[in-house]
Amino acid sequence: MRIVVLGVGNILLSDEGIGVHAVTRLEELYDLPAEVEVIDGGTSGMDCLDQVSEADHLIIADCMRSKKEPGTITRLTGDQIPAFFKTRISPHQVGLSDMLGALNFHGLMPKNIVLFGVEPLSFDLSMEPTPTVAARLPELVERIVGELAAIGVAVGRKAA
Amino acid sequence: MSKRITIDPITRIEGHLRIDVEVDGGKVTKAWSSGQMWRGVELILLGRDPRDAWAITQRICGVCTTVHAMTSVRAVENALNLEVPVNAQFIRNMIISAHAIHDHIVHFYHLSALDWVDVVSALKADPVKTAQLAESLSDWPLNGRHVMTQTLEKLKTFVGSGQLGPFTNGYWGHPAMKLSPEVNLLAVAHYLQALDAQRHANKIVTLLGSKSPHIQNVAVGGVSNPIATDSQSVLTVERLLALKPHMDALTDFINKVYLVDIAAIGAFYAEWTKYGAGVTNYLSCPDFPMDSKGTQFLVPGGYIPNADLAQYKPITAFGDAYLRDGVEEGVKHAWYEYSKPGPLHPYKGETKPAYTDFQDDGKYSWLKAPTFYGKRAQVGPLASVLAGVAAGHQPTIGYATKVLDTASSLLGSKIPLAALHSTIGRHAARAVRSGVMAEVMVQNWQALIDNIGKGDTKTFNKPTFPKGEVMGYGFHEAPRGLLSHWTVIRDGKIANYQCVVPSTWNAGPRDDSDNIGPYEASLMDNPIADAELPLEVLRTVHSFDPCLACAVHVVEDNKEVVQVKAL
């Protein structure tokens, strides 16, 4: 079984980088078994194609704008996750949805996908998330761990 | 009666590039290019350790990751007058070329091809005829009738399921789409094969860069890949040998598919060699240094004024004074203010926002307007290819000739080199440069193996930062063109940092003398068949491979993010 945990976002733009901060924290706090691959996907899309293709489970942490309270964590699965070139005017900046769209057409889609989206407060220039969003980071990491447990992967905290 | 069309954003992600055009008599008569997002990474770098700048700047953007890393270390090394071991140059060169090839393939097949290819029309194609056409153009093994039939079946299933996937919302059936169903099917087949090709490129970047996206192996003074011939944990000969099949696969794809497809698109859309030239002052820099000082390069670069190759002036070394002294950025039409009037050199550059609304004749963009000795310049693969031709660089001349000859024979009439000053020419130049870079990649691979064979495994020279102030700049011929980082270092900390990026050169607004920029100039006189569906504007802007630094990678739950307004 291949399980990929992918955090995406731009860590220079405060809350935009929450997905990356989440996977970094996950690796700091937990001992992960070999079948779990953690990827800091940063700002890239298509570059992750290879690592993500044909995974049995893909867990994504990202920033998501859905007009909710800043810091709200939303869980989306399967068809709820947009997998297409988002617009008809689709030039550069290949994002997550484009990568999934390409995988889908190519028949390399991960079998199960879960996305945790965090509502941002700000995209200001900063290498730290805003306090409002940062306060939800432990919960976000816990939910990723919970997701792994539901798949049947026991994850233990590192010794302090 | 003129009509105003606003496309916002023209890049995929909300808030990046906005294009406004005025259309009169079926063609563009006025154009504005506006960067809709504040970058400001320069401010994050102030006061930091210059050795960290590369890791931070490579997060500016989602596409141009490694290019900022490379340019940043070159800038700091230039400031310190620090030499880089040749092994590190070779490793960097392989990463640079593989990354750029990746970028070009993704841009052409997965992004801009959809401006020219009608995917739905491919459903009507005869796969046998498609295979015959493909096999007449190239001996690529994946052009046979079996592959074409499979591709058609896949497409039918996909469309039949009501799920167009990556092809959702194309301009299907637009009057400006002209390819036959067979050519469209061929393009879909190669779209799929290009996904595999780009994975080879990415493997190379990952194997050498330790991680992708966002490589980890760069260091001011070299690279952090220790080379050893007998250890598993470092760059071994075994791992080096593992790179070669990926390089060969990429080279094959570029020669047998990419260069051929671009010639075909060029021939079928030959009228697009008449549009989109825009600013024909071309600026590029040499790249792929083969010595420790950065004075010997595998690919040349320089300045060409007014499309006149005879007046080519080369740029010859890291720190070259001709480039260093010619660059300025103006903000008369950009949402910044300077502490004094007139444009500023990047060492003196200021990043102070001054937002107004979108003002047609005033400020209207977050991009500054760069100039080279007071003139606007176009950067990008076309600038690099033209410099290569002007400099007599044989690989560039060879690939350019191949593309032009193939297109000419398909069209049945001679297409001259001058046709490259166009919308379609920029796509062709990207393929030509990919051919050149595939050679460069293998040359550097061989050079590294040979040098290790001589017993030289050095990859890093330790930098030391002096007290007081030093300045330096680094350049790199990135996928979108000339990229430069400029830094002032005071007592070992960054005191000023400016990135002058390719999209600033090309997408910048009017300058201090009110001259329009390359995007804007390239749109003038473009035909517009349907103002509600301004496909022609997209074709020309996409030919630059638009990419405004600082990607916001946010997931949106509402799908309608682009507005096309025709007033």
CATH class of chain A: Alpha Beta
Strand order of the largest sheet of chain B: 3-2-1-17
**Can you write the helix and strand succession of chain A as a string?**
EHEEHEEHEHHE
**How much helix is in the residues of chain A?**
25-40%
Strand order of the largest sheet of chain A: 3-1-4-6-5
Number of strands of chain A: 7
Query: What are the segments of chain B in which pLDDT stays under 50 over at least 5 consecutive residues?
Result: 549-562
The total domain count of chain B is 1
- What assembly state would you assign to the polypeptide chains in this entry? heterodimer
Radius of gyration of chain B: 23 Å
Chain pair with largest interface: A-B, 52 and 67 residues
Q: What is the fourth-level CATH superfamily of chain A?
A: HybD-like
Number of helices of chain B: 15
Largest sheet of chain B: 4 strands, antiparallel
How many beta-strand runs of chain B? 17
SSE-based structural type of chain B: alpha+beta
GO molecular function, one term (chain A): enzyme activator activity
Protein name (chain A): Hydrogenase expression/formation protein HupD
InterPro entries (chain A): Pept_A31_hyd_express (IPR004419), Pept_HybD-like_dom_sf (IPR023430), Peptidase_A31 (IPR000671)
Binding site for Ni(2+) (chain A): 16, 62, 92
Structure description:
Chain B: Mg(2+) binds at residues 42, 553. The complex is a heterodimer of chains A (160) and B (567). With 160 residues, chain A is α/β, with parallel strands linked by helices. Chain A is 29% helix and 24% strand. Chain A is built from 5 helices and 7 strands, in the order E-H-E-E-H-E-E-H-E-H-H-E. A 5-stranded mixed beta sheet of chain A has the order 3-1-4-6-5, covered by helices on one side. In chain A, strands 2-7 form a two-stranded antiparallel sheet. Chain B starts with a strand and ends with a strand. Chain B is α+β, with helices and mostly antiparallel strands and 567 residues long. Chain B has a 4-stranded antiparallel beta sheet. A 3-stranded antiparallel beta sheet of chain B has the order 6-9-10. Chain B has a 3-stranded antiparallel beta sheet with strand order 13-14-15. The model of chain B is unreliable at 549-562 (pLDDT under 50). The chains are: A alpha/beta (160), B alpha+beta (567). At the A-B interface, strand 3, strand 4 and helix 3 of A face helix 1, helix 4, helix 7, helix 15 and strand 16 of B.
